[in-house]
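REQUEST
  id: r-88c1
  op: predict_structure
  target: Phosphogluconate dehydratase
  payload:
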Amino acid sequence: MTLNPTLREITDRIIDRSAPTRAAYLARMETARGQGPARRHLACSGQAHAYAGAGEDQAALAAGPGGNLGIVTAYNDMLSAHQPFEHFPSIIREAARVLGATAQVAGGVPAMCDGVTQGTAGMELSLFSRDVIAMAAGVALSHNVFDAAVFLGVCDKIVPGLVIAAQAFGHLPAVFLPAGPMTSGLPNDEKARVRQQFAKGEVGRAALMAAEMAAYHGPGTCTFYGTANSNQMLMEIMGLQLPGASFVNPGTEMRTALTRAGAQRALELSALGETYTPTCRILDERAFVNGIVGLNATGGSTNHLMHLVAMARAGGIVLDWQDFSDISAITPLVARVYPNGLADVNHFHAAGGLAYVIGTLLDAGLLHADTETVAGPGLARYTREPKLIDGALIWQEGPGESVNAQILRPASDPFQPTGGLKKLDGALGEAVIKVSAVAPEHHVVEAPVRVFDDQEAVKAAFQAGEFTSDVIVVVRFQGPRANGMPELHSLTPVLSILQGRGLKVALVTDGRMSGASGKVPAAIHVSPEALEGGPIARLRDGDLLRLDAPAGRLEILTAGVLDRAPASADLSGHQAGVGRELFAAFRAHVGPATEGASVFGGSDAD
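RESPONSE
  id: r-88c1
  status: 200
  body:
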């Protein structure tokens, strides 16, 4: 199918915009490739240090011609999504030995869970953890003794941070090895219902705890389609994971087979072989456009309006929110997965999964088919599914039709003709909204505002019965420079209850919502943020706002608002405790949300 001409135009403008920074990045990668891994050039003492803990692989490392694979792992056993990684290094080492190669754990990176920290002070470290992960992975690979790398990560900030690091070492091949989702437990809509009952005071904490434990019950990532599972979709559609690897459950034979195959493929792609495919060649402008298409087509996480921007900049590619909005306008929504539907990711995978999604988008001319991938040239490889036949891993053609039209539909007959993400412009600045789960009657909200400086004050006002009419809840001083831009997902039950009472309700914030943003319209990532004196800092209770998602507008209807002095807030309570004092430099130097909310200023992409 011929590439959609609008998609081609958007890609071309990204290429043109990025030309100077992309060229500088690729020149650096070519220099790094020419220098090669340093282990053969290390002094004997340096090599001895690098090999001392390698056990049976010492001799191969010291004298063997085989490649050495660096493992960067986000393993910890407190987070269900990363607990399965405990045994991956031994699987990877065995897979490398089959090829006469070696593998070493280069280092570990932190992995925090937004589900655990949601609504707590720890959430204020969440976004910054992405850049910490990138730096930690950079330290891990800085020994420069590896021919290729595999990255073990799944969740919200972990995968974007690992991608940023993989691009810093973009002369090396890299394969991402996921752990997969936990098996299905309590349905997500039932979990949400119990949360609302608790917020209303209809059930106690024991009932809430029982529901949460039934939903989050075993190893693997959460089964709703939030940032973690959006990450997995992106890694597959952008060509950094093997086809069909995203949503295979942990602890299965298929999961182990894919882990082995991914490790071996990383080694096969190294400069020691005949199919050298560095990460910098895979993650080009076309791959990022494919990622944005996939995000819109599946109703993916709003967090990636920042993460993809930051990931792209690490490779010299400059994306902006208009790119997302313009791609959304031509991308049909072909999947409904909770919170955009009742299905979880296991149901999505069973209905045809990413093989079907990629196939129907390719047929519609809505993906660049000619990208490089870790599986080989061409994205059509990702319409195939992995199978274990007599113990051997092979790929067969995936489903040509959806198994369940309530979960997956063809691009020719989608759930809706456009994607779920929209850029908003207006007197408040720039913002974004996800509407794939928002009913059409809520796409436009015009109402007076109630202004708050934190989410706890919103909850207190709700408990006091203060919301009795249409309202746009404004929560400000939640931007990256103010307090690390926490997610405000704990407001979801409150706002959903108000909407369920028949009120017109919306949220406007310079903070984030969860990757599982749902049915309440939310204009998020407002930039400039309040701490920078953005117009959101000039709003007062009773001012009239209009949020118009179809038109892409966020307007102040009250006269004279921009003539006011900006409000200030006491943020001293956000500067210390739970490790926040360690991140003062991050808060001082982080860039705006529109540029990925990254601390990596001064890069080629700036």
